Structure formats: structure tokens, C-alpha cells
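Why Oxidoreductase? Reviewers of the renewal asked for a concrete example.
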Amino acid sequence: MSRDVAIARIFSQPRSAMQSGKARTGGWMLTYAPAEQRRQDPLTGWYGSGDTRNQLRLSFATREAAEAYARANGLAFEVEPEKPGPAIKPKSYAENFRYGRAENWTH
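Here is what the prediction returned.
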């Protein structure tokens, strides 16, 4: 069962679990919603689909650029608002040796 109009989702690129800083977090991603249901292969038992757009992830510098791409290609899209992350308080190296520190020195 195929849809007439592809539906895309535009969202702010999240920080990976291996990342502690803010590098590469300002970008926006465009992904397609699945056009057909996944089904189990009778021979191998693996799940798959004939929809190859599901594997596609496009990255953009700004939300406006992602929206312009979707409009230019006739895609219906939904924009997820950007979620604010926790505020990172910058520290100096001297904080490790500060007098009256509450936590132990770990290195």
C-alpha cells in the first residue's frame, strides 16, 4: 500500500551518547516516514520492507533549508521543535585544585 504524498519529519539533530560537547548539534535532519509496513521474510525470518526511502537521512544547516527542500520536492512535512539541552557550565582546570572542593579529586 503506497501513499500518494511522502511524509517527511524535520527535527534538530540530537547529541550522540558518546558526545559531551555541543559540536555537530546545530544541524537539522529530514527523514521519511515509512510508506509501507515491514514484513517478515518467510525464508530467513528477518524483517524488511520494499520502502528504500526509510533508509535516507538528509542533513541541513538550518531548519529553513530543510523546509525549502521539502517544499521544492512536494513533500508533506512535520517540524519537531528544537529541544533545549542542559546548560553546560564551563570550568577551568584550576577548579580541580580549588580549596574547599566538595567532591574528591579523581585524577
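Helices lie at 63-72. This is the kind of structural detail the renewal will allow us to pursue systematically.
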